[in-house]
Amino acid sequence: MKAWVLERWGAPRQAIHLSTTFPAPTAASLTGSNILVKVSHAAINPVDVHVMQILPSWAPMLPFRPHPIPAMDFAGHIVALGPALLSSSKNKDNLQVGTAVCGCISTPMVVRGHGTLAEYIVVPASLVAVKPPSVTLAQAAGLAGVAGQTAVLVEAETGGIKPGHRVLINGVSGGVGSILLQACKGKGAIVHGICSGANAELARRLGADEVIDYQKSGPVEQFLAGRFRGEGVEEEQYDFVLDTVGGQGLYEKSPVYMKPNGRFVTIDGGPSQGVLPYIMNKLRPVWLGGTPRAYSILLLSPAQRTVQELARWVNDGLVREAVVDSEFAMEEAVEAYEKLQTKRAKGKIIVRVAA
Ligand SMILES: NC(=O)c1ccc[n+]([C@@H]2O[C@H](COP(=O)([O-])OP(=O)(O)OC[C@H]3O[C@@H](n4cnc5c(N)ncnc54)[C@H](OP(=O)(O)O)[C@@H]3O)[C@@H](O)[C@H]2O)c1
């Protein structure tokens, strides 16, 4: 089959090459509740590039010879079911050959050669959802993967967004932010978003009640601190600040614009992969200079609970739009990654694997 294979350390153009003779997994090799999926579309994520840049340097230390295949998000059709799924009691979602499914795999699966820039993948049935009928396969790959499932995780960390909650989303136009925005609005929140002016219209179309252009406002935390100075602003303070960009300043200044019982939730761990922010913001007590607001830093581990909640958001009409920046052919995956690396994509970048 065709598959992009990770061969050496570096930027996508150096790190991956397209194999047309990669051994395809077969139906006969399926065990347990795994399924064989013919991938129609894959969506790509910043984490794929992190893996390309970090992983090959450990590869010689791994106890097996890895042929990592990049990308985690997928949508496609089931072509075979593992033996456990042939009994209806173990096949709760009634998955069948031909069912369109979507979801994402874990990083260890990428390392073991099950990445989604491949025509066929083997994936546990517990990591997929049935594709919502209202979206195409390309849109499903963008919605139900890392971005959508991370949005589910962030929303859950708030304890559940309720009507009237006031929410600020940093990076509101991105893959995660655009889904989070729609879900928070769908649940009745008042949502303010931070993005560049170029994406302000998109954020408004997706429901943002106000958009702050970080390129015009100057440091956003100072802009907000200025706005929230004075009497009677408590009611306007946010219940939650949800950060998809990496906003240490936004957290440290948050007592000015976030309620005392509010929570700051971030998904960006910075260069220390979350270690430093965890120590600074989660462990450091206020008397040692810590910020007196609850702080969470999250790392997605794909799971049935999250992918199915995302599918519910789509089926219930909370998330109506899959924001797709662009689609690339399978042969153009390097160009797709280079577009991702500009950090200027408006929504998800999709690769047509075998559409
Ligand atoms: N912890 C986890 O499990 C997890 C999971 C998924 C993603 N992530 C991380 O989360 C980050 C976002 O992921 P994504 O898939 O949403 O990325 P993305 O699609 O590239 O979106 C990032 C967005 O951030 C906006 N942005 C850039 N600089 C900004 C700034 N200074 N202030 C406010 N907004 C800014 C960009 O919009 P403009 O062009 O308008 O600036 C862009 O739309 C990435 O670093 C990713 O690695 C972590």
Helix content: 25-40%
Q: What is the C-level CATH assignment of the largest domain?
A: Alpha Beta
Strand content: 15-25%
- In the CATH classification, which architecture of the largest domain applies? Alpha-Beta Complex
Strand count? 15
Oligomeric description of these chains: single chain
Described by the principal axes of the CA atoms, the overall outline is: globular
Summed over residues and divided by their number, the pLDDT gives a mean of 93
Order of helices and strands: EHEEHEEHEEHHEHEHEHHEHHEHEHEHE
Bound chemical compounds: NADP nicotinamide-adenine-dinucleotide phosphate
Which fold name fills CATH's third level, the topology of the largest domain?
A: Quinone Oxidoreductase, Chain A, domain 1
User: How is the main sheet built?
Assistant: 7 strands, mixed
Instruction: Kindly give the count of domains.
Output: 2
CATH superfamily of the largest domain: Medium-chain alcohol dehydrogenases, catalytic domain
Number of helices: 14
Structural class: alpha/beta
What Rg, in angstroms, do the CA atoms define? 21 Å
- Alpha-carbon distance between the two ends: 14 Å
Uncertain stretches: none
List the helices and strands and how they pair.
Layout: E1 3-6, H1 12-15, E2 16-19, E3 34-43, H2 46-58, E4 73-81, E5 100-104, H3 107-111, E6 120-124, E7 128-130, H4 137-143, H5 146-157, E8 166-170, H6 175-186, E9 190-195, H7 200-205, E10 210-213, H8 214-217, H9 220-227, E11 238-243, H10 248-252, H11 254-257, E12 258-266, H12 275-283, E13 294-297, H13 304-315, E14 324-329, H14 333-341, E15 348-352
Parallel strand pairs: 8-9, 8-11, 9-10, 11-12, 12-13, 14-15
Antiparallel strand pairs: 1-2, 3-4, 3-6, 3-15, 4-5, 5-7
Helix pairs in contact: 5-6, 5-13
The structure holds NADP nicotinamide-adenine-dinucleotide phosphate.
